[in-house]
Design a protein that fits this description.
By secondary structure, the chain is of the alpha+beta class. It is built from 19 helices and 23 strands. The strands form 5 sheets. Strands 6, 7, 8, 9, 10 and 11 form a 6-stranded antiparallel sheet that branches. It is rod-shaped and about 225 Å long.
Length: 679
């Protein structure tokens, strides 16, 4: 530093002495002493000023040299290429990074035409660019590709402007190969993406779309179509979401039912469910200036969701309204589902079900079952045999009967997911089944009885008819004795009466069944009726070794009744005829008592009796006390059925008390205050 100052002072002194020689010096002798001293002082001050100025100049020079070195370093080692070109495009200056970009030594690049380092396709573009730079005198940019021996194309971005003398232009060259290649890769990704992608500007006008977008919507939106405006018109609430994206946020739109035909007539007129996301692309200033709208066609998913929702609602409804109690457990025997009917059928406390474990529920159910041990053993068997299907009936202690069905839930590969249990209360069905079986049995019996009746009735009818026919023919023979004639006539009359009785019984039972039988009410004395019947049946031919007696419990006045006298006589007559027919020895007694304003009539005998199981059905049509009776004793089996019908028609009831081998007593009631209108 001091050496440099001395050299500078020596140089300045030499220049000062040369200038002094050219001037005419003033005579010192003409100056006074004071003036000489003053002059010396001024010279000294001036000298010091000059030294200070020299130091400042040296400092400035050193700073300039330092700055030049820094500039040179920045220029040479900058991450961008700095290249100066002449009007002809020759390189006049280039930094180290620029030389590295051109893959040449810097000294070998001077005076080389920059255009020669570009690929053929980029050269015409660069020539036009260079011409424009010198003509416009403003900053211009372009993108070209360098000619390099690499598989990847090298792209550079050039910013250029002429310098002050307008003879050269300074270029800043940036290698954008990675960015450009990344953009190309991104474009490939966008184009080949299965999701629809639409790039729009800040106002929603389309800048670019991929092929998936065209496949989805059928066409590219027209230039004057703004997707932002279209979305906001459909739902004003979307305006805030679009603004959020403009503010730099990623926005997920709610699912939208969209018709692309509204955007363009070239698009199909079809309703699509679209799920979309919108996110911004930021420029160099980090401001959103473009937006990516990605669409996903979820129409099929929505349809499937709707179908699943419908199936779930349907399944839930079916489960709730099902008459079956349903319980579903998983592979670990934890409760997955149960319906209301299941809870009500078994009366299970909510806490047991809410705990989600099936074992307490199983034991709660088992306590209600009559055969508890069998039920638990069956349940244990199904636990150990997961793939078994089982169905049986459970009889409860309270008498109810449940149909139980259970099946496993099996997935792909025979994977076991749990078990479904169904319980149905079939108590009424079982009762109905039992009644149906009973009805069937009765119907079968009725058919058998009808067959037997027809066989019997045919016999009962043919017998008197044969008698009538046979003896009528005998009457036609000449010279018949008088006594024989009377005998034959009597047989014909008796057979006719027998046939008439059969026909009347058939007509009567038919009238009762069709509701056409009517009552003819009369007031009469029961005692008189009993006396008349005793007289008649005392003379009955079937009496033989049997005594017959009648009992009258009250006076004639007290025995008056208003009812159908003819039907009462027929009831008693039917009972008396049966009693005499089936009593071989002993007695027959009939009469009445008055109990609770009812006449209780009875016919008692010491005959063959009736089995207990037949005492109810003996009053049915075509029924007799035994299947052999019709063969041995004859008869149609309609007498008791007619008696029962008449009794009920007159407001009473009929029944029998009997012991086989000891006899029977038939009872029937008629209201004492009978005063009905004729039906």
């Amino acid at each position: 530093m001091k050496k440099d100052n001395k050299l500078l002072n020596s140089t300045l002194r030499q220049k000062a002495e040369e200038l002094l020689k050219r001037k005419v010096p003033a005579k010192v002798s003409d100056l006074s002493g004071a003036e000489v001293l003053k002059l010396l002082h001024e010279l000294e001050v001036h000298k010091l000023e000059l030294e200070l100025q020299i130091e400042e100049l040296v400092t400035a020079k050193e700073k300039a040299l330092s700055d030049a070195r820094k500039y040179s370093e920045l220029y040479d080692f900058a991450p961008s290429g700095y290249i100066t070109l002449s009007r002809e495009g020759a390189i006049t200056e280039i930094n180290i990074h620029g030389a590295q970009m051109l893959d040449k030594e810097r000294s070998l690049l001077i005076e080389k035409r920059f255009c020669s380092f570009l690929i053929q396709e980029s050269r015409p573009l660069f020539q036009l660019f260079l011409k424009s730079v010198f003509q416009s005198k403003v900053k211009e940019t372009c993108v070209v590709s360098l000619m390099m021996n690499t598989a990847i194309q090298n792209w550079i971005h050039i910013s250029a402007q002429v310098n002050s003398d307008e003879e050269f232009c300074n270029m800043i060259v940036v290698d954008i190969s990675e960015q450009r290649n990344a953009e190309e890769i991104l474009q490939d990704i966008i184009e080949n993406n299965p999701m629809s992608i639409q790039i729009v500007d800040r106002n929603g006008f389309t800048l670019n779309t991929n092929s998936a977008h065209t496949r989805l919507f059928g066409a590219v939106p027209p230039p004057d179509f703004s997707i932002f405006h279209d979305l906001q018109s459909k739902d004003p609430a979307l305006k805030d979401l679009i603004q959020q994206s403009r503010d730099g946020e990623v926005v997920h739109f709610p699912d939208i039912l969209y018709n692309p035909h509204n955007a363009s007539s070239e698009c199909p007129d079809v309703q699509l469910w679209i799920r979309a996301v919108l996110f911004p692309l930021k420029n160099n200033e980090r401001d959103p200036d473009r937006f990516v709208l990605m669409h996903e066609n979820i129409t099929e998913r929505k349809q499937n969701e709707a179908a699943i929702l419908f199936r779930n609602i349907l399944l839930s409804t079916l489960q709730d309204v099902s008459i079956d109690g349903i319980l579903v457990v998983d592979e670990n025997r934890r409760i997955l589902f149960y319906n209301k009917q299941f809870v009500e059928m078994w009366g299970i406390p909510a806490k047991l079900l809410d705990d989600g474990i099936d074992e307490p529920v199983l034991h709660f159910v088992a306590e209600q079952i009559a055969e508890k041990l069998d039920f638990l053993q069956k349940a244990l068997y199904l636990v150990n045999h997961r793939h078994e299907i089982s169905r049986d009936e459970l009889v409860l202690k309270n008498g109810r009967i449940f149909d139980r069905y259970t099946a496993p839930m099996i997935g792909e590969g025979e994977q076991y997911f749990g078990r479904v249990w169904y319980f149905r209360d079939i108590t009424e069905a079982k009762q109905a089944e039992k009644e149906l079986i009973s009805s069937k049995r009765k119907a079968e019996e009725s058919d058998q009885l009808k067959t037997a009746f027809l066989q019997n009735i045919s016999h009962e009818i043919r017998t008197p008819l044969n008698s009538i026919l046979g003896f009528s023919k005998l009457l036609n023979k000449p010279d018949i004795p008088e006594d024989k004639l009377k005998q034959f006539s009597g047989i014909i009359i008796k057979s006719s009466e027998q046939l008439l009785t059969i026909v009347n019984d058939i007509i009567t039972i038919s009238s009762l069944e069709t509701g056409q039988e009517k009552l003819t009410l009369h007031k009469f004395c029961v005692n008189d009726l009993i006396s008349d019947l005793l007289t008649i049946f005392t003379m009955h031919p079937a009496r033989q070794k049997v005594s017959i007696d009648a009992k009258q419990q009250v006076s004639d006045k007290e025995s008056e009744i208003t009812t159908d006298k003819g039907k009462l006589i027929q009831i008693l007559s039917n009972l008396l005829i049966n009693a005499l027919k089936f009593t071989h020895q002993g007695f027959v007694e009939f009469g009445y008592n008055i109990e609770d304003d009812n006449f209780v009539f009875y016919v008692k005998d010491t005959g063959i009796g009736i089995k207990p199981e037949m005492q109810e059905v003996v009053f049915d049509r075509f029924r007799q006390g035994d299947s052999t009776i019709s063969t041995e004793y004859g008869g149609t089996g309609l007498g008791l059925a007619i008696s029962k019908g008449f009794t009920e028609l007159m407001g009473g009831k009929i029944w029998v008390e009997s012991e086989p081998g000891k006899g029977s007593t038939f009872y029937f009631t008629i209201p004492a205050g009978q005063n009905r209108q004729t039906k």
